[in-house]
Amino acid sequence: MKTMSYILLICLLSISAFSQPNWKRSEPAKQLDLELFHSTMTSNFLTTETLKKGDWEYEISHRFRQPLNVGFDGFWGLEGPVNMRMAISYGITDHFMTTFGLSNLQNHFDLQFRYKLLQIRSKTLPSVFALRGGIAWVTKIPAGLDRNRLDTDNFQYYAQLAYNTMLFNKKLGIGIVPSYVYNSVIFSLEKQYTFTLGNYYQFYFNNKYSIWVEYNPVISGYQGIILPENAGDPAKKSHNTLSIGIDVATGGHVFHTFVTNSTRLNPSQYLVGAEESFEFDNLKFAFSITRYF
């Protein structure tokens, strides 16, 4: 009888041991990224958003060269000609992405990298910082400049620090983008630099529609001629760029439609300045479209 009791006790203990779940230290829940703006870019600047690992994004942008005041005969500038940019981006990690682009203005190639640096979670002032650096190559050499395409003077370098926040219950997005360009104008006899303090403000009516304004004032550095054909004419110096527009986000696309005084597209082109001042007679129609896939 005693032996049977021992056997029964051992069986009960064994069943109890196997029926208990294995204990494991609980893993902390992974926090989602702080995503403020609805796109990785405004019309001309970066936001702090990055692609997810393995995702792609395609961009096409147009800046019509004729001003709006050509009227009906030129269909308000939409008949062309245009400066155009195309670019493809890829998410290397969730916080690190790369972009390769080209512009028909000066046959301009561009390679850039972006990294999401810091996220500060706050109910009143959520904040995100991102850093972008890039190198650009100008392959169309201005007439009269004795230089081959691979000359080091044809390369430009730039760096940008982006800060984003969102106010008023995720309605008003604010971006500040200090930017630096080295070798601002490749036809200058001496290397030039440009430092700007870009900023933009975007008001979201809902997840689909928003309006925005962005401004790129040159704080220090080069503020002279930006088109080689205007060399020697001090009245043709660069101007600060201002753009005003509407965004529509739908089905993986973001449409940026706006008016601007600049027809320059790649970052090392746009950051240096606009060809004309922001006045009605100088305004051009422009758009950018991005597609996620």
Fraction of residues in helix:
under 10%
Shape: globular
Taken as a percent bin, the fraction of beta residues is 35-45%
Average residue pLDDT: 88
Distance between the termini: 74 Å
Strand/helix succession: HEEEEEEEEEEEEHE
Number of strand elements: 13
- Work out the helix count: 2
The main pleated sheet reads as:
12 strands, antiparallel, barrel
List the strand order in the largest sheet: 1-2-3-4-5-6-7-8-9-11-12-13
Structural class: mainly beta
Low-confidence stretches: 1-26
Question: What oligomeric state best describes the polypeptide chains here?
Answer: single chain
Rg calculated over all Cα atoms: 27 Å
Written description of the protein model:
The chain has 293 residues and is mainly beta. The chain contains 2 helices and 13 strands, in the order H-E-E-E-E-E-E-E-E-E-E-E-E-H-E. It has helices at residues 2-19, 267-270; strands at residues 56-64, 82-93, 96-103, 108-120, 127-138, 155-167, 172-182, 193-204, 209-216, 218-221, 241-250, 253-260, 284-292. Strands 1-2-3-4-5-6-7-8-9-11-12-13 form a 12-stranded antiparallel beta barrel. A hairpin with a 4-residue loop joins strand 3 (96-103) and strand 4. The longest helix has 18 residues, at 2-19. The chain is globular, with a radius of gyration of 27 Å. The protein starts with a helix and ends with a strand.
In short:
The protein is mainly β and 293 residues long.
Please describe the structure with a list of short key phrases separated by commas or semicolons:
single chain, 293 residues, mainly beta, 12-stranded antiparallel β-barrel, 2 helices
